[in-house]
Amino acid sequence: MIHPYVKALLKIVICIHAIACATYAAKQPNLLFIFPDQLQRDVLSVYGGPVDTPNIDRLADEGVLFSDAVCSTPYCAPTRMSLVTALYPQQHGVVQNTGWKQRGMRPDEQTYPRVLWEDGYATHHYGKWHLEGKKKGDSVDWYPDLFRYFPEYQDNMADKLETYRSRGQGRYSEWYSLVFPVEIADELKIALDHNDLWEKWKDHWAGQMVLGMGMLDLPQSRIALTINWPT
């Protein structure tokens, strides 16, 4: 039998532990950073644009809406590097997209995800990145399950992407080896046909992007996003 004083002491210890955990959790709120590629602010309904974006609007209503934020550069990789290091491109050294004799992110870079990880956060990254080497399995300690658009996503979706390509000209878009089902506008199709651009641009990387500039042709269904935060 446990002595009443021991029981009382255990209850006090449990209460102190619970308070400490709650205080620690309050000091470490969950952080979710969503960074879309080539998203123009003035098309979003939250900024008065013509496209209805209720979920983005809700994030803005419940959080902070920036009105004067700008990218540090029009290039993808330098902008992402600035976001994670809080440095200008001329300071961190990534001044253009990786792949043109441009280094990516080094494992020893001081970044905010690394600082959070060192402070006890569980940190993850999923999606477009291309700041470090593209070799499969390359990662850093603070991204233990890195899942980039290349090579992980591309490998995972290879069969599906090929089915989109089989839809034929004007019905798929190829963007840096990723393929999406689209339907191009009739006006664009007339221009492409009239100038024989299907043939002229079929082997040009930039031309291929233009040939697939259409609306995404995806099933109209709701997608539920469930996030299981670490406890």
Describe what you observe in this structure:
- This protein is mainly alpha-helical and 231 residues long.
- The chain folds into 3 domains: 1-29; 70-155, no CATH class; 158-216, no CATH class.
- 39% of the residues lie in helices and 7% in strands.
- The protein has helices at 4-27, 54-62, 76-85, 89-92, 112-118, 149-156, 158-165, 186-194, 197-200, 205-211; strands at residues 126-127, 147-148, 172-175, 178-183, 215-216.
- The chain has a 3-stranded antiparallel sheet with strand order 3-4-5. A two-stranded parallel ribbon has the order 1-2.
- A hairpin with a 2-residue loop joins strand 3 and strand 4 (178-183).
- The longest helix is centred in the N-terminal third of the chain and has 24 residues, at 4-27.
- The radius of gyration is 24 Å and the shape is globular.
- Residues 222-227 have low confidence and may be disordered.
